[in-house]
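Input.
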Amino acid sequence: MIGKCVNKIEMKGEISVRKRILVLFKRVLLLSLMIITGGVLGCFADTLGNILTIEAEDGTLNGVSIIKDDSVSGGAYVDGFDAEDKNLVLTAELPADAVYQVLVRYKTYSGDKTNYIYLNNIKVADYVFNDTAEWKETIIGQFKLKKGKNTLKIASFWGWIGVDYVQFIGGSSEPVKKVEFEIDRDINIGLDSSLVLTARADNAAEYRFFVREKGGEWDKLGDYSEKPSCIWLPPSIGEFEFRVWARKVDSDVEKEAEKAIKVSVLAPYINKPLLNPIYTDNMVLQRDIPVTIAGWSKPGDIITVDIANIITKTSTDENGEWFLEIGPFSKGGPYEMTISSSTETISISNILFGEIWLCSGQSNMAFQVTNTLNAAEEIINSDHPEIRFINIPQNTAYRPAGIIEGNMEWSISSPSTISSTTAVGYFFARKLNEELDVPVGIINASIGGSAIETWISYDNLKKIPKYINSANAIRNAEVDIETTQSPTVLFNGMISPLLSYKIKGVLWYQGEENWGQSVYYRLLQTFIKDWRNKFGITDLPFIIDQISSFSDQRPVQSAANPVERYKGLPEIREAQLITVLNDENCGLVVTTDIGDPSDIHPPNKQDVGLRSALSAFAIVYGQEIVSSGPVYKSMKIEKDKIRIFFDHTGSGLVVGKKEGLEPVKIDKKGKLTGFAIAGNDGKFYYADAVIDGDTVLVSADGVENPAIVRFGWHNAPVTNLYNKEGLPASPFRTDYVYTL
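Output.
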């Protein structure tokens, strides 16, 4: 491949003819070497800069694609990182054994994306490419690399990025001559913000950061480190200055280059809107209860809200924040609302009152309507004026935020708007709207790949010993945020700003990222209690969508593979089941029969939404319906068989068959699958299972004294036990007590 040389040569004063000739000679020599080696070398500037740039499109492409684009470096970039076997390999010829910064220019497609980074076939990072629709440079890290040929591979994990180029910076024996300094936001920040300071030197470097209040003494923010960034939490309102020192790696001088920047820390209400941006035209507010409207103005200001000719007033607190209750209003609308302060008046229109559900979790909740089964038909038929939704932008924070950064607005369901919203949330809302004849508002706050601990507040997560240190590290800004992994950060950035918005319930679809973790049961319990406490609703309903079938490229459940041998998804499903069985305000939605063992994102979200609605009808809206499939109740040993008793058998147990979006059909000649049985030795055999009334008799050749039954106990279960209402049985094991 051919590398591109980026020369950053700064010449001051007169340059002798001899020196000019030497510079020209070196350039010609490097160009000749490139031609001789077929361009593998790339080229380095031997003065200020020391940067080797390699265009992504010049690499070895394995399943990824070149996209022509005149606006990027080299006129093209590489994308298509959407499967685990897809990767890009770049080769660079480095001039010396030295420490090099590795930089990637990239963009993402909807959210933070984690990809594997390999140097010389050794994985050096599960690197999180932070969400950006615009091209952005990020430093992967600094690494000791050898002279000569080196390879860098970017391999898909959570994929969906574009790569423009990669740079290797360093390799020079000269000291650092220049360091740049930037911050991640405007120089005027709020007291409730965090600030990320990032430095970049012209050589592989160590950095030390300082801060002082205007006119004060410099405080050191840490010792010299190869980490090029520092996180700062403002202690007070005022003017602050920051300084970074840089020196070459392993240098013992105090500093070789420095740079400074000034920042103003403003009062919390400054630069914030009169009305919290979660409240917009076309919104739905919760019916039949008082609801809260919120925003900001100067401290002590009088705020007036007028809706339906009902005028309500309040005043802002010492931080300039205001909250005001209106209503209750019964279902219906549309209404217009006017909000006034001493200096500003705004109006929002087309407001409905109905049912508000918060949809959250990871990628299966974020999964968009456009990717579902029969997507084109679903989108064409999505005109539902009483269904509204708002997609919350991805945001993280070290401390609970008061406002969500990014553009968002309530939209009316239609073919032009529905494609990019949560499919589960949409199909859930559609059924609620149809059955209850009320407007439905969906708040979609979901992030692919997110672990449950990212959605729990510090106040409650710190009660779990395993997370005390990591939660404190985030709260004190001691570590960088990893969007999908760092405890509390999604609660802080995406849920905390929503707490004033009254909701009816939560639809939760998450768990894959906590694969096999025994602590998930406690995490799920803590999560539910946490949100009930923070939203101020002690009986806030949660509808939990149980994790579907996924084999992770291993065999599915079969006679040869009757139970999962290692911790995985069965433990997550069990934690979800136990949580629901011990909480009357929780419902469980079983999805193992509508998954795809080869795809962790099954496209049948219609049935997930429908079953979620059935659960809500029974638990939240008091309908006397069959809303659940069979759930294990107890067992009884009968000689060489075990009899399994169930709750939620509905009109009776059946062998069922589910195909696509068709309703479950009774398979009168079918044989029950998914059962395994063992004696006290714990050796499981694939079992014969027969429906006997509202029970199932389980046995197997080779198990004369049975003790344990497991059903669907596999990452990719193959099961077909339903009730006649067409709802599947939840996986279970009898060697566990399912009550607290």
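Residues 354-619 form a domain with the Rossmann fold fold (CATH 3.40.50.1110).
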